[in-house]
Design goal:
There is one protein chain. With 811 residues, the chain is α+β, with helices and mostly antiparallel strands. The chain contains 23 helices and 28 strands. Among the domains are: 216 residues, Biosynthetic peptidoglycan transglycosylase-like (Penicillin binding protein transpeptidase fold, Orthogonal Bundle), CATH 1.10.3810.10; 104 residues, Beta Barrel (OB fold (Dihydrolipoamide Acetyltransferase, E2P)); 51 residues, no CATH class. Strands 6, 7, 8, 9, 12 and 13 form a six-stranded antiparallel sheet that branches. Strand 8 and strand 9 form a beta hairpin. Helix 9 packs across helix 11 and helix 16 crosses helix 22.
């Protein structure tokens, strides 16, 4: 009886308070509460904190950045079951009350008095929305009064659907998840439509104490809250008994899920993140910007695979460096050590898992793999592991597994070519690969290293390394503009320089350490003859070469003012080299690389759109105004031709189309019969390329292209040191380029470039570089500019060695 009287007293008191508030509201709200309340109109324009998302050009998620995980949904995208769960748990009379549920307040008070626990709060969803957006969480009467009046005002300004949509998108649900869309992704890796009833109830149980009750922090608490929500849904008739029992029996399976990144491009993602931070400041992480990068998901995946496979191949050629660590195994006390705990401090490289070797016999090793359990590594997966001694020397080949592993070794496990477990090893060497569209410079793929998590240093855009002989096409391009032709004879002979700027006597050599005598320029590029390149540069002058190379987008301030420039002594990034090669690929235009297509804000407005320079070979000879006049003359009398599109920013012609064609043709011979012959495996006739190897083999390069794509591959150590014997561009970097281009060119027809006007192909003598005599049996074909066709072999008035140079006078 006393308890009943207590309940009645509390209930009546509450009704009196509510009645008093209601009665006084009309008078007091205007003079005291209302002036201090925020404008509800701001909710209509509310900007939820939404992370920065980056997508590939073909619409696949590449990266997501931001402290708050949020996936905003419109009301129609929220499943009815999810709405029912939240209303049952938080506010079952939401669609009936005016923002303050007087019956709910009484019911909550009575329940508290009878049970001593708060089973369902008296606050409504609208009141929670008011508190979350406008008020603090302090527990004072004044704050509660403001909350009530603000809830009433919100209900007057917004529809029930608008209120519920804002609430379900804004509510904090633990683990950085704000809103039901983010919670579904974070805890279950699903969209809201894919959630089961049990998963819906788990999420709906989180608002009470999201940091404490979420299934990652405590599965026990999460189960209790899920049971409460399911029971309330049963009580309110939203589910039946069978659904209730089945969902109650469902195990709690939840774990943290990152953003569902569909394409592995972390180096590109970081480039975009930095650019957005420069453009928008800290709001870049919260304003909901959606960025479309220029990368193509298919090409990006191919680039990642090509780089990793190539670096692992190099690493295996140089031997096994030993286990990641050693632990006591078997443990001194049987059953004392948990292998998973022993492996917890070790991180696996991409494509590998950490494993503990537990037993080694004559044929195999038994390994416990973290997260996967016991497995067996057979001899075929171990036989490659000759010991690493240094970059040039390996130890003896192993004969049995015990020569490689011992019990207690912590190793990396990967899959062999036939899908069986094998010994893995993260390469110590690094690399980069970048691919561009030569027409407008869009970065189609970019990889800046083997493992972004291990090293965020982006070698594709930050590592300035000497390109070696891969720089020679730019030198030869300058030569063609300074009186040389592809058939000019230059003597490949020893030279010695005493130059104060070089600090010592310089005796450059060819890679083979041999000298080949008089050599045509085409052959010198095909065979990568260093001494010919040096003589060519000295003949035309360093200044002339630098002025020409500046047009490729390589600032003259970066270029050394000495003859070492002929051997690629300038320090350039792989991206800048690809950008330079794009000029040869597109017919002589300087386009400039870019990597962001567009940026859209949270409301769908385009706030940035790339406006790249576009190569336009067809509009060089006929300027826009000339084309307009010509079109006018061809139209019927009185008719007007369409106005040309003046919005397209056509790129500048930085070298002539004839120059670009000739250099690309010489570089095609590098692949047909020179240092890039391995690329013949692609079975194409439209590929041009050039290898590069620097002094002591510290850097290995290959850059190549056709009219549709340009790609540059680089391999080297971050802390510069030799790559080792026989590690040069054609062996070390070219395989990466081939693997990438195999995918990039798939289903693309072979399309050798058309010869531009102003060129002519004639028969020449391979020995002299002059026009061949009639009937000369060993004559070959060579292409020249019309004004650079050589004299017949009988004409002795000019030198075959180069412009204004006689053989004896070259150094």
């Amino acid at each position: 009886m006393k308890l009943l009287l207590r309940v009645l007293y509390i209930a009546s008191s509450l009704l009196i308070v509510i009645g008093a508030i209601t009665g006084v509201a009309a008078i007091g709200a205007h003079y005291y509460v209302a002036p201090s309340l925020p404008a509800v109109e701001s909710l209509k324009d509310v900007r939820l904190q939404v992370p920065l998302r980056v997508y590939t050009r073909d619409g696949r998620l590449l990266a997501e950045y931001g402290e708050m995980r949020r996936t905003p949904l419109v009301f129609e995208e929220i499943p009815a079951l999810l709405v029912d769960a939240f209303l049952a748990a938080e506010d079952d009379r939401f669609f009936e009350h005016p923002g303050v549920d007087y019956q709910g307040l009484v019911r909550a008070t009575v329940a508290l008095a009878l049970t001593g626990e708060r089973r369902q709060g008296g606050g409504t969803i609208t009141m929670q929305l008011a508190r979350n957006f406008f008020l603090t969480r302090e527990k004072t009467i004044s704050r509660k009064v403001r909350e009530i009046f603000l809830a009433l005002r919100i209900e007057n300004e917004l529809s029930k659907q608008e209120i519920l949509t804002l609430y379900l998108n804004a509510i904090f649900l633990g683990q950085r998840a704000y809103g039901v869309g983010a919670a579904a992704e974070v805890y279950f890796g699903k969209t809201v439509e894919q959630l089961s009833l049990a998963e819906v109830a788990t999420i709906a149980g989180l608002p009470k104490a999201p940091s404490r009750d979420n299934p990652v922090s405590s599965s026990v608490r999460a189960l209790a809250r899920r049971a409460y929500v399911l029971r309330r849904m049963l009580e309110t008739g939203k589910i039946g008994e069978d659904e209730f029992q089945a969902s109650m029996a469902e195990p709690m399976v939840a774990s943290l899920h990152g953003a569902t990144v569909e394409v592995e491009a972390p180096y590109m993602g970081e480039m975009v993140r930095q650019r957005l931070l420069e453009m928008f400041g800290p709001s870049a992480y919260t304003a909901g910007y959606v960025v479309t990068a220029t990368v193509d998901s298919r090409l990006q995946t191919a680039a990642v695979g090509a780089l990793r496979t190539t670096l692992i191949e190099y690493d295996r050629r140089h031997g096994y460096r030993g286990p990641l660590g050693q632990v006591q195994w078997p443990p001194e006390v049987p059953g004392e050590a948990d292998p998973e705990e022993l492996l917890a401090d070790y991180r696996a490289s991409p494509g590998m898992r950490v494993g503990l070797v537990t037993k080694v016999d004559e044929e195999r090793a038994e390994v416990i793999v973290a997260g996967a359990g016991p497995t067996v590594v057979a001899w075929d997966g171990l036989s490659w592991a000759r010991p690493y001694l240094d970059d040039n020397v390996r130890g003896p080949a192993p004969k049995v597994p015990a020569d490689v592993l011992t019990a207690g070794d912590v190793i990396e496990v990967t899959l062999t070519a036939d899908g069986q477990p094998g010994l893995g090893q993260a390469p110590a060497v690094q690399g980069a690969l970048v691919a561009l569209d030569p027409i407008d410079g869009a970065v189609a793929a970019l990889v800046g290293g083997f493992d972004f998590q291990a090293s965020k240093y982006n070698r594709a855009v930050q590592a300035r390394r000497q390109p070696g002989s891969s720089f020679k096409p730019l030198i030869y391009s300058a030569a063609l503009e300074n009186g040389f032709t592809a058939a000019t004879i230059v003597n490949d002979a020893p030279v010695v320089f005493d130059d104060d700027r070089l600090e010592s006597t310089w005796r450059p050599e060819n890679y083979s350490q041999r000298f080949y005598g008089p050599t045509r320029l085409r052959e010198a590029l095909v065979r990568s003859r260093n001494l010919v390149s040096i003589r060519v540069l000295r003949s035309m002058g360093v200044r002339a070469a630098i002025e020409h190379i500046d047009g490729f987008g390589i600032p003259s301030s970066l270029l050394p003012r000495d003859l070492s420039l002929a051997l690629g002594s300038v320090a350039l990034t792989p991206l800048r080299m690809a950008d330079a090669y794009a000029t040869f690929a597109n017919g002589g235009f300087g386009v400039g690389a870019y990597f962001i297509d567009q940026i859209v804000d949270s409301e769908g407005n385009v706030v940035y759109r790339a406006d790249p320079f576009v190569a336009c070979a067809s509009c060089v000879d006929d300027r826009i105004d000339e084309r307009f006049d010509r079109d006018r003359s061809e139209m019927p009398a009185g008719a007007e031709p369409p106005i040309p599109d003046l919005e397209i920013p056509y790129a500048d012609q930085v070298i002539t189309r004839q120059n670009a064609y000739l250099i690309a043709d010489m570089m095609r011979d590098v692949i047909r019969r020179g240092t890039g012959r391995r690329a013949l495996a692609l079975g194409r006739q439209d590929l041009s390329g050039k290898t590069g190897t620097t002094n002591d083999r510290r850097d290995a390069w290959f850059g190549g292209f056709n009219g549709s794509i340009v790609a540059t591959a680089w391999v080297g150590f971050d802390q510069e040191r030799p790559l080792g014997a026989r590690e040069e561009g054609g062996r070390t970097a070219l395989p990466m380029w081939i693997r990438f281009m195999e995918t990039a060119l798939r289903d693309m027809p072979d399309n050798p470039p058309a010869k531009p006007g102003g060129l002519v192909t004639v028969r020449i003598s391979p020995e002299s570089g002059r026009l061949a005599r009639a009937g000369e049996v060993d004559a070959i074909f060579e292409t020249f500019r019309l004004d650079h066709v050589p004299q017949p072999a009988e004409d002795k008035t000019s030198s075959p060695y180069g412009p204004e140079e006689e053989e004896d006078s070259i150094f």
